[in-house]
Design brief:
The structure is a homodimer of 328-residue chains.
Chain A: E1 2-6, H1 11-23, E2 25-27, E3 33-35, E4 38-43, E5 55-59, H2 65-71, E6 76-81, H3 87-92, H4 94-115, E7 120-126, H5 149-166, E8 171-177, E9 179-180, H6 194-203, E10 208-210, E11 217-221, H7 223-235, E12 246-248, E13 252-255, H8 256-267, H9 269-272, E14 275-277, H10 281-288, H11 297-302, H12 310-321
Parallel strand pairs in A: 1-4, 1-6, 4-5, 6-7, 7-8, 8-12, 9-11, 10-14
Antiparallel strand pairs in A: 2-3, 11-13
Pfam families (chains A, B): Epimerase
Domain NAD-dependent epimerase/dehydratase (chains A, B): 3-207
Keywords (chains A, B): Carbohydrate metabolism, NADP
Amino acid sequence: MKVLITGGAGFLGQRLARELLARRELKGTDGQRQPITELVLLDVVAAPGPDDARVRIEVGDIAERSVLERLIDEKTSAIFHLAAIVSGQAESDFDLGMRINLDASRLLLDVCRMRGHKPRVVFTSSVAVYGGELPEVVLDDTALNPQSSYGAQKAGAELLLNDYSRRGFVDGRVLRLPTISVRPGKPNAAASSFASGIIREPLTGEKAVCPVNGATRLWLLSPRKAIECLVAGCEIDAAAFGNRRTVNLPGVSVSVDEMIAALRDVAGDAVAARIEWKADERVEKIVGSWPAQWDTSRAQRLGFAGDASFKDIVRAFIDDELGGTIPA
Amino acid sequence: MKVLITGGAGFLGQRLARELLARRELKGTDGQRQPITELVLLDVVAAPGPDDARVRIEVGDIAERSVLERLIDEKTSAIFHLAAIVSGQAESDFDLGMRINLDASRLLLDVCRMRGHKPRVVFTSSVAVYGGELPEVVLDDTALNPQSSYGAQKAGAELLLNDYSRRGFVDGRVLRLPTISVRPGKPNAAASSFASGIIREPLTGEKAVCPVNGATRLWLLSPRKAIECLVAGCEIDAAAFGNRRTVNLPGVSVSVDEMIAALRDVAGDAVAARIEWKADERVEKIVGSWPAQWDTSRAQRLGFAGDASFKDIVRAFIDDELGGTIPA
């Protein structure tokens, strides 16, 4: 079977690729576990790896129909659609956000529909689909009320995937990811970028700026658990989802102060002291509109598992990205 | 000011046009009540009227950008977007439903955005955005879970209107209409057609077939009140909507038995006796899945009013469509 990862050069795409290559097989179209013979990594830049005979690196614009028609065929049994314009950029460049977050998602579904073989399609979505006045605890069936263009575009893509699945054009699943922390690499344009930066930078000897106040609550998932959830999301039987293909993944609800306390516990005072506070109203407004507490019992019943604590998340980052030790 | 009605040849579009012409003025772009100098009725067929110097009848495909660019300019202060592909057809012709219910709605918003004057835009939506397991009483913030392509497309258009409004591209409002009863004219293929037919046909001397059992509950709004709600929906100050531009309009929750009792009270035994019962499993299944009870306190706070009772709805039909008397 062939597997396609869009956003394959990104950090989640790269980790997912390595995980799939290590697993060697996956459930796809027919629900039977099959060997992965080809893993296509599509992105606007060439994916740096992994170096493996099964990997095919493709550069292209996912909003171009011809690109998707070239890369999705009847052997493409599973598609992980991770490509996205992040929240900050979708807010500053409305057209680009619409083109990638909504139009490209629809195009992908349409090309699958045209092929007619009903591949498993995993979309990632976001807590940004929620907003406005929210209940104390957010459920899978709490109403969507996005307060950002990114959230509106993701919510629109969710609706499409659900309807294309209901009609039998694809066998789709949408996973609403908590904010991923700790991301490796550089800060990015996402409003939530600091949720990784305030841990990652201090651990690698650099200063970090926290743009929100310490009481701000976040809903977090480690990259490690996110990858496990993506694979599980592809392999779960369609019937288990009932009439709702969208699921809120389990996260850890934690305040910024608690995150820093966990960093201090794991890495010491000197590391935690590298965080500076500088309020950014724009970031506070976007992040403050996201819910911080969730009932994810449905996700758990479906077999998804998150992290046990934020300390575990910090330790997982040190293990996975820093080789198990904190640089002096 | 100019006003545009899409679906202007339809039954609601025609009634709305007559109402606006009679009112002579409307709040639009700047929130000030202004005289209506031009009322554009766009549809795929020529609207039959009204015969008034202010009316401009236009035939065109609403999914064509050039049509909307021709009809929406900086003087277009208010737009009522009623054009839609109905549920049955959107299910049988997926591409047509997507094109009209989703793409044309987006195009309309985009042309407004390009013009830059932030017109008031009123979208109509539907109870079909709900589905699956529903609470006993449906609220404005009950989660959407459409189980039809029509519902998914309407829900997608709702999301777009909300985001375009949040960004200041338009001043939009979405009204989710209850089932409209009593519609004039002929029965149609809609599952809810009987909700008008079992009143309209007996009142005009014809037999009607009721395809569902008498305990089936419906959520109804008269054409008269629907038109009042459309006008109110345009005129309410944007700030009153808060961060949610979508509102469930108030309806009357009534069983089929209660509908027939009201008909008997208003028009007598002989009229009510023209209803025959013939169960239609397909219709019963569809109608039985619709929520029948709603909390519409938000709509009421916003100033929307429904009908006081189903008897009022029957009397309104006799007044508006039968000239105030029941044919012998």
